[in-house]
Structure to design on (235 residues):
């Protein structure tokens, strides 16, 4: 039996697209989700192991690790996709904001990588950890300061874990900018955002999936950050 892939935040937006991709490839999937909705039930009906987790709660990680170990003795990959787009403007409690951003984007991946490494090393092939970071990890963001700092921390973890776990596990980051708009994004916002990249398009989730596919199929790429930003760094 194939070793499953763990995808955090695998029930919505980009995470859901990644989940569906691996289902179509007939690869077992374990996902985490925060709030139960119809999509989760549909995924469960397709054989996906769905585990409810609130990463704001540090104790929840130990429970998640226990459930994963009970479900499978191996993992093919971990894709750290769970994220929160909270910001200083919307959250005046800056103490809590910073702690929450670091908890979700840095501490949780760190703890999961440490706890689940034996399952990755037990895989019959070279395993992978993929951190989904963000374009802003490279340049910062005056509107999302804590968020950008936490994603930069996650990016740095890729290099440390790559050195720690080689050659059994490859560890890399994918740093996207715009991938898909939200349904509520208005025309003015969409036009402004599209102009920020050289390519000027809404690329869709397949761009992230293709990047993940490249990393998982490679036997040589580790400790690197793959930018998926449409040349935005040159604007």
């Amino acid at each position: 039996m194939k070793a499953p892939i763990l995808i955090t935040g695998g029930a919505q937006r980009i995470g859901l697209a990644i989940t569906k991709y691996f289902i179509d490839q007939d690869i077992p999937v374990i996902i985490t989700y925060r709030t139960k909705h119809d999509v989760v039930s549909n995924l469960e009906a397709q054989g996906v192991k769905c585990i409810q987790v609130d990463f704001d709660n540090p104790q929840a990680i130990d429970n998640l690790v226990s459930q994963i170990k009970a479900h499978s003795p191996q993992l093919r990959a971990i894709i750290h996709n769970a994220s929160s787009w909270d910001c200083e403007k919307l959250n005046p409690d800056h103490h809590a904001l910073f702690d929450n951003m670091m908890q979700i984007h840095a501490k949780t991946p760190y703890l999961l990588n440490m706890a689940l490494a034996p399952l990755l090393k037990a895989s019959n092939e070279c395993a992978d950890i993929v951190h989904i970071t963000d374009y802003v990890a490279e340049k910062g963001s005056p509107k999302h300061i804590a968020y950008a700092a936490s994603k930069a921390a996650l990016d740095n973890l890729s290099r440390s874990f790559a050195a720690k776990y080689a050659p059994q596990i490859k560890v890399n980051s994918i740093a996207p900018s715009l991938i898909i708009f939200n349904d509520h994004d208005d025309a003015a916002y969409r036009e402004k955002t599209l102009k920020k990249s050289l390519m000027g398009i809404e690329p869709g989730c397949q761009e992230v999936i293709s990047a993940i596919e490249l990393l998982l199929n490679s036997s040589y790429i580790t400790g690197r950050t793959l930018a998926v930003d449409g040349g935005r760094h040159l604007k």
Remarks:
- The chain has eight helices and seven strands.
- The longest helix spans residues 94-121.
- The longest strand covers residues 169-176.
